[in-house]
């Protein structure tokens, strides 16, 4: 059965939440489903060329300089779409967009569509002050019409309900993040394992790349041939590059900036590291596993990392713990790539995720 699907993004920058939606969209397009994507602001970004050619995709990219300036045009576009298009499913993954879509449904738009909202992070553990009040307002007054709210982990679900004191939709369930296996396989041109440790994410304080750099600098001389590759860009790049210089690591650390295909780096690296202080769930971790990383190391940034097979989880988010686990993996030449890929194929495919969404939203 062919259904019509609507996905709404704040920007086309493929961060963690956006990539989850991208993975689902790619799966639906391959399944010959009809997909409309609305991107609110900042124009076209790298990565979307992978799906632009699909005839069953209607991709609407706005070039507004910010999400604030895009809100009114977005509302007008959605009102128009609700009158001329018959959507079966509407999906979003950012709290403010989730709230807006729910509010519009309260106002009578998209009456027959199933509205699915995914929670992208631990909102009330990350935001305080005015931002916290803003999100409280969204959950209390705009949420409520969702047929299904998806949390990435049990801890995220319990944290959200505890902070609000109520369930903010008709149903709230845990559905672990997916990866699109077809997309990952098509993004790898060759697999040539190198002495590389890789990390990927926006260069912001929350990701604790400064601690990872310090841990890397303290590895024993035995592992001096290894290079650390940091994939991504952000406001911390200048300070991280300065720290790299101060630690005498200029010849051993590579800053790639924002790139369209981090998957190739994951395929060629031996070790992948998640160094974040807190995450909803680090989707890059399961992308590393799917791409064939030999060993993945993570801080206890979310309870979800404990559900994955053969992940080395540090006791805390510290330089010493990261160094210990990296050296353990290198000293013992740990290689879990086969078990990682088998797990992803069985439990984390976009198809598996979407089938769960369909079943949960219908019942």
What proportion strand? 15-25%
Count every beta strand, where a strand is a DSSP E run of 2 or more residues. Answer: 13
Per CATH, the architecture of the largest domain is 3-Layer(aba) Sandwich
Instruction: Tell me the major beta sheet.
Output: 7 strands, parallel
Find the structural class using helix and strand composition. Answer: alpha/beta
Principal-axes geometry comes out as globular
Distance between the termini: 18 Å
What is the number of independent domains? 2
Low-confidence stretches: none
Query: Element order, helices and strands?
Result: EHEEHEHEHHEHEHEHEHEHEHEEHHH
Helix content: 40-55%
Mean pLDDT: 95
CATH level 1 class label of the largest domain = Alpha Beta
Topology diagram in text:
Elements: E1 4-11, H1 16-30, E2 34-41, E3 57-64, H2 67-84, E4 89-92, H3 95-106, E5 114-118, H4 123-126, H5 129-142, E6 148-151, H6 154-164, E7 172-174, H7 181-186, E8 196-200, H8 209-217, E9 227-231, H9 237-246, E10 253-257, H10 262-268, E11 271-274, H11 283-291, E12 295-298, E13 312-313, H12 319-331, H13 337-347, H14 350-362
Parallel strand pairs: 1-2, 1-4, 2-3, 4-5, 5-6, 6-7, 8-9, 8-11, 9-10, 11-12, 12-13
Helix pairs in contact: 1-14, 3-5, 8-12, 10-11, 11-13
């Amino acid at each position: 059965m062919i259904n019509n699907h609507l996905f709404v993004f704040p920007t086309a920058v493929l961060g963690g939440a956006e990539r989850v939606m991208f993975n689902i969209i790619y799966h639906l397009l391959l399944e010959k489903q009809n997909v409309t994507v609305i991107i609110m602001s900042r124009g076209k970004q790298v990565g979307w060329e992978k799906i632009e050619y699909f005839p069953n995709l209607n991709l609407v990219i706005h070039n507004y300089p910010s999400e604030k300036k895009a809100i009114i045009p977005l509302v007008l576009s959605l009102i128009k779409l609700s009158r001329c298009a018959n959507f079966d499913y509407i999906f979003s993954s950012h709290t403010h967009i989730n709230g807006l879509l729910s509010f519009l449904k309260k106002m009578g738009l998209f009456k027959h569509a199933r509205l699915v909202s995914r929670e992208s992070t631990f909102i009330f553990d990350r935001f305080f002050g005015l931002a916290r009040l803003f999100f409280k307002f969204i959950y209390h007054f705009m949420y409520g019409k969702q047929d299904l709210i998806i949390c990435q982990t049990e801890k995220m679900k319990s944290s959200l309900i505890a902070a609000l004191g109520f369930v903010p939709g008709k149903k709230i369930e845990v559905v672990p993040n997916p990866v699109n296996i077809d997309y990952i396989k098509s993004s790898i041109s060759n697999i040539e394992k190198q002495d590389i440790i890789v990390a990927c994410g926006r260069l912001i304080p929350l990701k604790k790349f400064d601690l990872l750099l310090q841990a890397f600098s303290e590895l024993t001389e035995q592992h001096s041939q290894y290079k650390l590759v940091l994939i991504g860009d952000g406001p911390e790049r200048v300070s991280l590059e300065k720290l790299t210089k101060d630690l005498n690591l200029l010849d051993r650390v590579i800053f790639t900036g924002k790139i369209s295909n981090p998957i190739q780096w994951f395929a060629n690296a031996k070790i992948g590291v998640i160094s974040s202080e807190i995450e909803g769930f680090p989707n890059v971790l399961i992308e590393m596993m799917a791409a064939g990383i030999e060993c993945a190391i993570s801080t206890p940034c979310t309870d979800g990392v404990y559900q994955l097979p053969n992940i080395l989880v540090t006791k805390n988010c510290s330089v010493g713990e990261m160094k210990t686990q990296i050296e353990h993996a290198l000293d013992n030449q740990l290689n879990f790539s086969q078990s990682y890929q088998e797990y992803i194929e069985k439990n984390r495919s976009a198809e598996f995720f979407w089938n769960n969404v369909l079943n949960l939203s219908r019942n």
